[in-house]
């Protein structure tokens, strides 16, 4: 819900006023890090959050030269990494911000490990395996996973909340940002709304306001305006809390934002057969109908039953490729040997076998997949003809495509799309499986322009005094798709820049 209502007069005498030094909007990845950093400097810190709870803190954190990486003997060449990230974005980024992240990420990631994980017997495990077999899909071992035993994930949100409360941070839930208040060019606080009693009140912030509301992926109106293709190619939004409130509030006081869209799309959205993309944009916070197997380079075909791209690509690329096909959706087709193939694919990041949780081993991946057969989102058939019919795909085309893939796989050379031989697997052993897939928008990245102090910029590229942004409310860092070969960058961009914003605001 976006409670921005600029037409109202909030300057009435009966409106309640509370005061703080640093005010943070949003108790998510950037917001809680900002709060901890401000509180560490000894300033009075208040966080408002529109929901009853803090948001999920992400388990895979990117970083360069973190303690976990040092323990694992991992060394990343930062110049190569920054050039890769900038090139991935075709340099539509503020490259200085990327260096800033690289240079500050370890301090932020280590802070989480030392202050939040270790007191609870958990740690970060750095993943050394980048499986760099194909230079086209170069990857960097940036990922640090929060874990207790290296095989399961350690969810640390509750510990983080306890930690900041112990540090003196006040958290006000069910409270939403309505608008920023500005006096003589300086942001002095906000108008807020208590979502329980629907009453408006003011919060004065003497040192600054930090916007951490997490982008706008839940707001279909803003998506149609700023990123219309995202609405067509994605059938799920996995960040239902993020409706653009922070970005809009800042723009209402003269801030500028990135002009080109950027976002994180994953290729794991199961679509009920027969559903059109324009009729589906499911908002979920619980990984609803999320198929891990879909990020594996199995055969993918368009709604005509024809292969249309090399399936061995970063997560978002196959969804981008499908957006050039009729209907924006695509089908994945595979056979009963998929467990064996998944192990041999050697995929990366959270698509790899061995990723804690659902993908810890082949048996878990198979069980995760089979549950969707029971739900009717994956169909199973004894013959390919039956499979095509169940998926509403043209039977002749699918038979032809599968015959060609099997031929290429026997030759060991993908003459059509250049997939690596070890990922070119046949569809030959019944029962056959298939499903329809579309994108999942995890978050948007195009945000407010900020400088290295995380100050929000106005049209003259001058900072708006006492206004900061971090996480997906802030921009300049990503362009187009998410570089998933630099795993954990999204959460770490939020946490690292949140930490910098908190420190900076506390200095005023
Ligand atoms: C399923 C999923 C898995 C992911 N996994 C990873 C991963 O492993 N590694 C990685 O790097 N990235 C991951 N990401 C991306 C990562 O979560 C985001 O980039 C990151 O959370 C952004 O942080 P943020 O602080 O900007 O926003 P958030 O963490 O979303 O926090 C924003 C907070 O602001 C609150 N808020 C919104 N509007 C208002 C308002 N008007 N008033 C008050 N409060 C408000 C929201 O309720 C929310 O709590 C994942 C995303 C998803 C959806």
From TrEMBL:
Residue ranges constituting the FAD-dependent oxidoreductase 2 FAD-binding domain according to the UniProt record: 22-481
Gene Ontology BP, a term: steroid metabolic process
Cofactor(s) essential for the protein: FAD
SUPFAM superfamilies, per the entry: FAD/NAD(P)-binding domain (SSF51905), Succinate dehydrogenase/fumarate reductase flavoprotein, catalytic domain (SSF56425)
A Pfam family matched in the record: FAD_binding_2
GO molecular function: steroid dehydrogenase activity, acting on the CH-CH group of donors
InterPro entries registered for this protein in UniProt: FAD-dep_OxRdtase_2_FAD-bd, FAD-oxidoreductase_2, FAD/NAD-bd_sf, Succ_DH/fumarate_Rdtase_cat_sf
Keywords noted in UniProt: FAD, Flavoprotein, Oxidoreductase
Claim: Ion transport is one of the keywords in the record: no
Protein name: FMN-binding domain-containing protein
Organism in which the protein naturally occurs: Liquorilactobacillus satsumensis DSM 16230 = JCM 12392
């Amino acid at each position: 819900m976006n409670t921005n209502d600029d037409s109202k007069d909030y300057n009435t005498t009966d409106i309640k006023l509370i005061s703080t030094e640093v005010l943070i909007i949003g108790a998510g990845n950037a917001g809680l890090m900002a709060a901890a950093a401000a509180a560490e400097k000894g300033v009075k810190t208040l966080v408002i959050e529109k929901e009853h709870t803090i948001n999920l803190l992400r388990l895979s954190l990117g970083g360069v030269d973190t303690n976990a990486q040092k323990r694992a003997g991992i060394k990343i060449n930062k110049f190569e990494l920054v050039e890769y990230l900038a090139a991935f974005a075709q340099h539509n980024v503020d490259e200085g911000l990327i260096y800033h992240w690289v240079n500050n990420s370890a301090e932020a990631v280590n802070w989480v490990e030392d202050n939040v994980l270790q007191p609870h017997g958990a740690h970060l495990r750095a993943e050394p395996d980048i499986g760099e077999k194909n230079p086209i899909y170069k990857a960097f071992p940036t990922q640090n996973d929060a874990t207790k035993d290296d095989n399961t994930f350690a969810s640390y949100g509750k510990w983080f909340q306890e930690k900041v409360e112990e540090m003196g941070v006040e958290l006000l839930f069910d409270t939403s940002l309505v608008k920023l208040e500005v006096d003589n060019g300086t942001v002095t606080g906000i108008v807020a709304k208590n979502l329980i009693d629907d009453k408006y009140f003011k919060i004065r912030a003497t040192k600054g306001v930090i916007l951490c509301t997490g982008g706008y992926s839940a707001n279909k109106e803003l998506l149609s305006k700023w990123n219309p293709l995202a609405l067509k190619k994605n059938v799920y939004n996995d960040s239902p809390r993020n409706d653009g409130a922070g970005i809009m509030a800042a723009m209402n006081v003269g801030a500028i934002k990135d002009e080109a869209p950027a976002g994180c799309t994953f290729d794991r959205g199961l679509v009920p057969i027969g559903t059109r993309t324009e009729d589906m944009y499911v908002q979920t916070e619980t990984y609803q109908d999320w198929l891990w197997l879909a990020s594996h380079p199995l055969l993918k075909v368009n709604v005509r039953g024809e292969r249309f791209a090399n399936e061995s690509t970063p997560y978002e690329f196959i969804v981008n490729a499908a957006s050039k096909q009729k209907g924006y959706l695509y089908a994945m087709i595979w056979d009963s040997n998929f467990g064996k193939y998944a192990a041999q694919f050697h995929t990366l990041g959270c698509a790899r076998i061995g990723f804690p949780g659902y993908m810890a081993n082949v048996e878990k991946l198979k069980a995760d997949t089979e549950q969707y057969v029971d739900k009717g989102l994956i169909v199973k058939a004894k013959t390919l003809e039956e499979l095509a019919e169940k998926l509403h795909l043209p039977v002749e085309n699918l038979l032809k495509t599968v015959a060609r893939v099997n031929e290429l796989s026997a030759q060991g050379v993908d003459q059509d799309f250049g997939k690596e031989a070890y990922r070119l697997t046949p569809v030959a052993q019944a029962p056959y499986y298939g499903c329809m897939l579309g994108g999942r928008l995890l978050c948007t990245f195009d945000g407010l322009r900020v400088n290295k102090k995380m100050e929000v910029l106005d049209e003259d590229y001058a900072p708006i005094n006492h206004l900061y942004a971090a996480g997906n409310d802030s921009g300049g860092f990503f362009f187009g798709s998410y570089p998933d070969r630099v795993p954990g960058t999204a959460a770490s961009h939020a946490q690292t820049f949140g930490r910098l914003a908190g420190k900076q605001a506390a200095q005023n």
